[in-house]
Amino acid sequence: MIRFEHVTKRYADGTTAVDDLSFEAGEGELVTLVGPSGCGKTTTMKMVNRLIEPTEGRILLDGDDISAIDPVQLRRRIGYVIQQVGLFPHRTVLENTATVPHLLGWKRGKGRERAAELLDLVGLDPSVYGDRYPEQLSGGQRQRVGVARALAADPPVLLMDEPFGAVDPVVRERLQNEFLKLQARVRKTVLFVTHDIEEAVRLGDRIAVYGQGRIEQFDSPATVLGAPATPYVADFVGADRGLKRLSVTPIEESDLDQPPVVHLDDPLTRATARLRAEGARWAVVLDGHDNLHGWIPAGDSATAASGGTVREHARRMEAWLPLGAPLKQAFSTMLQHDAGWIAVIDKESTGRFLGVLTPARLHEALRRSIDADAQHVPRATVAVETVTSVTTAAP
Q1: With contact defined as beta carbons under 8 Å apart, do 247 and 339 qualify?
Q2: 11-25, 242-256, 302-316 — which is least confidently predicted?
Q3: pLDDT of residue 303
Q4: Confidence of residue 139 (pLDDT cuts 50, 70, 90)
Q5: Domain 2-245 falls in which CATH fold?
Q6: Is 338 buried (19+), middle (13-18) or exposed (0-12) by CB count in 10 A?
Q7: For residue 47, what are the contacts with CB-CB under 8 A and spacing of at least 6?
Q8: How confident is the model at residue 76 (pLDDT cuts 50, 70, 90)?
């Protein structure tokens, strides 16, 4: 969708902002441009909508050389979101959102209808926020309006220049989450400028790590973190890149252990006798459809003698996640609940139990992920040394 071919930007004083840049952002792909201030990432983005003209090379948008397109018409095909949002203070939220459709000559009713649809999409009820003015909104709400305005004419491309940099960390994380959900629905081709490697890793399908005017590495977040291409990239992503990689490594079914399982209607005496015979300290409790219900300790003789079924003694399961959740979230969940393992369920079902992830298995999954990238093979095919049995871990 966006292709840079040997693009250079050199200013009259001899300063080279971007030097021989070649890369491509595919249709529906979110590419983060990350690097320190003054490295050329914003210059790169502004050349796409011709706010800055390249000195050499060419930029293609959906196969068309942008130098042959009228700049005004080009910019109306591209959504643009900046850090300070740039809303018109004298216009309502609905009017701000409908700006580009109005410039394109849409009928007023159609433009307002589209604006209302987009406000709803970014989580702002148009009946509540539509008639407000920008000064009546929080920073996070203004940023959402900025995203809605950029999407109003349904452009195939979004350019985003540190859009969440002016809000506090809590709001920033919320906006990132909301934008990822939005991107999953609208699938725009996005160039996203940031100086924050955490944000780049979290949002990007691929990351362009900038040095001084050049891209030092262009790859998936997992590869950038697991196999930095140069010492510069390794230094930029940080010594804790292994921890950062947890956020882009999903839980896979091959990462899971299979502990003892009992069902709600099993007699308690039989269930506890089985666990003691197997040397297990606990078991996962499932309902009649194999959906996760909770867990139960092996118990002692007095508990077993009390009779009844597993149902009366099962404990609530606090630590669980769906398959595909990032390892970072798994680690956080273990810490939050002081848990020796977490249950993993099928995210496509109502709660079908798949297995458990232990700290040792989590570490193994991270190692396998790094080795898989280095060998260019599926993660499940990578062998590493075995881990301890789940029967030794307490819930």
Answers
A1: no
A2: 302-316
A3: 57
A4: confident
A5: Rossmann fold (3.40.50)
A6: exposed
A7: 7, 9, 18, 53, 54, 59
A8: confident
Query: What is residue 37's three-state secondary structure?
Result: coil
Bridge partners of residue 16, in order along the sequence: 10
Buried/exposed code over 261-270 (b: 16+ C-beta within 10 A; e: otherwise)? ebbbebebbe
- Residue 216 has a pLDDT of 96
* Per-residue tokens: 69: 């397109």
Residue 379 DSSP SS3: helix
| Amino acid at site 121 | L
CA–CA dist 9, 187 (Å, integer): 30
The candidate with the shortest Cα–Cα distance to 356, out of 340, 338, 342, 335, is 342
- Tell me which of 205 and 380 has the higher pLDDT: 205
Question: Does CATH place domain 253-392 in 3.40.50.740?
Answer: no
Q: Which residues belong to CATH 3.10.580.10 in the chain?
A: 253-392
For residue 300, the model assigns a pLDDT of 54
Please give the residue that has the higher pLDDT: either 52 or 390: 52
Residue count of the chain, please give it. 395
- Phi and psi angles of residue 235, each rounded to the nearest 5 degrees, phi first: -70, -40
Paired tokens of 364:
């193994």
pLDDT of res. 393 = 46
- State whether the Cα torsion 163-167-170-175 is positive or negative: negative
Exposure letters 304-334 (e unless 16+ CB within 10 A, then b): beeeebbbebbeebebbbbbebbbbbbbebb
Taking Cα atoms as reference points, which of 45, 29, 62 lies closest to residue 160? 45
pTM, to two decimals:
0.76
**Rounded distance between C-alpha atoms, residue 156 and residue 279, angstroms:** 59
Neighbouring-strand partners of residue 30: 190
**φ, ψ for residue 174, nearest 5 deg:** -65, -45
Q: Are 226 and 245 in contact (CB under 8 A)?
A: yes
